[in-house]
Amino acid sequence: MRWDELMDRAGSVCEFCGATEQLSGVEITSEDHVLLCETCRSDDAPSVHWRCLEGAVWSVVPAVQIAVWRKLGGIDEVWAVEARENLMMEPDVMARAVGEVQVVHKDSNGMVLEHGDTVVLIKDLPVKGAGFTAKRGTAVRNISLVPDNAGHIEGKVEGQRIVILTEFVKRK
């Protein structure tokens, strides 16, 4: 995220405590950044300072929610444990907070694919090791999603179980 976008989103204040001095962007995940003051970026801030997180838990910005949730997890005080337990996040935001990467399979048009869907090939595909070409327009029924790779699905073409790149299919 660009500096000016981060400053605009945060209103030019620390997204934890509201301070306006010595602000800097901090990467929380590869796609999430927050704007924090020097005190909130440091590990040796006084424990009383972290009470500001009780207000920050109400942010609607996913990046701030993730950062607050993680910071509260490192504070061993009753108020912090309660605040962390009561923080409401969407499931995908919570997955990013705990470090889970949710794999979403999408076809060539950006439509989400699900296990059991039927897709159609949009290009002739030579099938390595099988000695045939899967023709454009071939329907592949009851696909399986490769769990750790959003770019791959599996399906049967001409009786052969093959791996197909999602960029070469469209959902039917």
How does this model look, in words?
By secondary structure, the protein is of the alpha+beta class. It has helices at residues 3-10, 38-41, 53-56, 62-73, 78-86, 91-97, and strands at 24-29, 32-36, 119-121, 125-127, 132-134, 139-140, 144-145, 152-157, 160-165, 169-171. 26% of the residues lie in helices and 23% in strands. It has a 3-stranded antiparallel beta sheet with strand order 6-3-10, with no helix packed on it. A 3-stranded antiparallel beta sheet has the order 7-8-9, with no helix packed on it. It has a two-stranded antiparallel sheet with strand order 1-2. Helix 4 runs antiparallel to helix 5 (78-86) and helix 4 (62-73) packs across helix 6 (91-97). 23% of the residues are buried.
* Unreliable residue stretches: none
- Major sheet strand order: 6-3-10
Mean pLDDT: 92
Strand count: 10
Strand content: 15-25%
Helix content: 25-40%
Number of alpha- plus pi-helical segments: 6
Order of helices and strands: HEEHHHHHEEEEEEEE
Distance between the termini: 36 Å
- The SS-based structural class is alpha+beta
Shape: elongated
Q: Characterize the main sheet.
A: 3 strands, antiparallel
Radius of gyration equals 23 Å
Attribute tags:
172 residues; alpha+beta; 3-stranded antiparallel sheet; 10 strands
